[in-house]
Specification:
- The structure holds 2 protein chains of 2 kinds.
- Helices cover about 35% and strands about 20% of the residues of chain A.
- Chain A is built from 12 helices and 19 strands.
- Chain A has a 5-stranded mixed β-sheet, sandwiched between helices. A 4-stranded parallel β-sheet of chain A has the order 7-6-8-9, with helices on one face. Chain A has a two-stranded antiparallel sheet with strand order 1-19.
- In chain A, β11 and β12 form a beta hairpin.
- Chain B is of the alpha/beta class.
- Chain B folds into 2 domains: about 120 residues, Response regulator (Rossmann fold), CATH 3.40.50; about 80 residues, no CATH class.
- Chain B is built from 7 helices and 9 strands; from the N terminus they run βαβαβαβαβββαββαα.
- In chain B, α1 packs across α2.
- Classes of the chains: A alpha/beta, B alpha/beta.
- At the A-B interface, α10 of A face α2 of B.
Chain lengths: ~400, ~230
Amino acid sequence: MLTQAGVKIRSEYCSKCSVCSSICPFEAIFADEKTGELVIDIEKCRICGLCFSSCPSSAIDIAYYDRDSLVNYVKERIRETGMDKLVVRCQSAPLDDSVKDRLKRHGMGEYITLRVPCVGRVPPDFALRMLAIGVRKMAIIPCKGENCRFERGSNIGLLRFSLTRNLLGQLGLEEETLIVIRNLVRAHVDANRCIECGNCIYTCPYNAVHFGSPGAAQVDENACWGCGACVAVCPALAISLDEFNHRSLQQSIIRYAQIIREMKQKNCKPAVLVLHCQWANFPPLNGSGNYSDGNIALLELPCSSAFDPMYVIQALHEGFDGVLIAACKKGECRFEEGNELAEKRMLTLKKLLAQLNLESRVELCFISSKYLGEFDDNVKLFVNRLKPM
Amino acid sequence: MIVTKEKPVEEILEYLAPYKNVLVLGCDGCTQPPRGLKQAKMYAMLIEMAAKLRHKDIKCRAATVAMQCDNYLCSSTVHPQLEGVDAVLSLACGIGVQTFAEVFPDVPVYPGQDTVFAGSQERENGKLYERCKACGDCLLGETGGICPVTACAKGLMNGPCGGCVEGKCEVPYEIRDEKGEVIKMIERDCAWYRIYERLKKLGRLDLYRKYRSPRDRAVSAWPRLLEGV
């Protein structure tokens, strides 16, 4: 299957300054020995977008969230809602209660949210353009620096925004115009529900969970990366991740099932739920939802290791004809081999579903967002194989 | 912990065929793998789905108990859940199922698991090993912490026997499928060979040389009862 790369350097615009190659955390950009032109090794690339946002000549094209689509999205939201405050947050930095409280203290009660895979991919001029289109106040919510899924994206993004803030100060704007709050998605244990089985302690790739004395499991806030592997192995539903808690995911499945049941009656196509790792496939700017051309609902997970067999069974129970789980390619997990954990869990789940002859309705695929269309191709392949139940 | 194995869904459906409203009851106790609330919810959905595929109608609810084998906990926490329930599918071990049957004589209860043995878990390879026969007369203190009653195929008190070849037992582990057919054999260490090696390492071969008379089987004559606890 021929696929196109999600990031490209347009050599006609490139001034060969090498900023991109020096900033790339994965050493994927280098100068060609013969021609001296900068090239991207797409195999090494993780599509963080740092090169795109750092290029002074706008010579790098990126398929996701480019400059114009970010600006247009905000413009549209301003027109729709009339709000003039903007929150730019990293995919894995949740807007939890503590962040909301702090935003409120800064006078930000209602705001437009812009969710990007990494704040480091937002170009430096973005803040200025936002002010130009009518945004009065901005908050940036990056991950904690050491937990950045792209090594230094969070720190670089932050550095850029602090430079912008200095600039805004020189222009005579208030300091409050641009604020920064760091946050990171984390696992929380409900001690009342914990049955002390130890599954989370064994599974955690960061050794962040241990037994408190006495009793229930405890998560070490500083060591947790928020991958959600522990959530999926907890037999007592005692662990939840900020944004990805069981209740909201289960409610989403039920809500999508309702929508898709109605659509299915109209077009008779099989209904599919896709649980995808948020790094394997970047969700569209206006949030996840269903594909318009098929009966396909997308649900985001922080990592494929957070895929819980219960969600799959629930989806089939609610009337989906199949469930596809999209994990990152082997060796590209943003955490520690979460995709391999997911693969193991899939085997057990298939064995269970085989008793109902439903094992072919569940599939795991390994994809990467750096190849354009790979996700869609996999979804299409899966859908074409399925017959409605 | 008590090791259990899921029963085939087919068998569970046969049990539940006459009923409409079923409570799937997990157990948060020592069952391994854990059969808590999530497992109960998963089974509730699976059974509803399987019934639907067979054009039957079974409604399932899920709940869990801290320990189903504790008659007080079982009666006090399960009681409010039983309203409108025709039958209960218990995901606890056989002990939990029986305790439930004793506590609620009017509610039909069916096992969702086969209780296999009391064993230990090896997480790395995802294996569970039988470790204790509950013989009621523990001799681990004389055998370097390795139980010959469980680990020796013959349960010998003085070993090894002639079936030990290069430290391996002549009787392998037998892995069976759902129908009970042996699908795989896995080589096993001789228990007495391991006992000898371990006692040697501990410098306690005197314990190995001691002659042990046959086990007093009266202490493990079942059913047993302990009083005054």
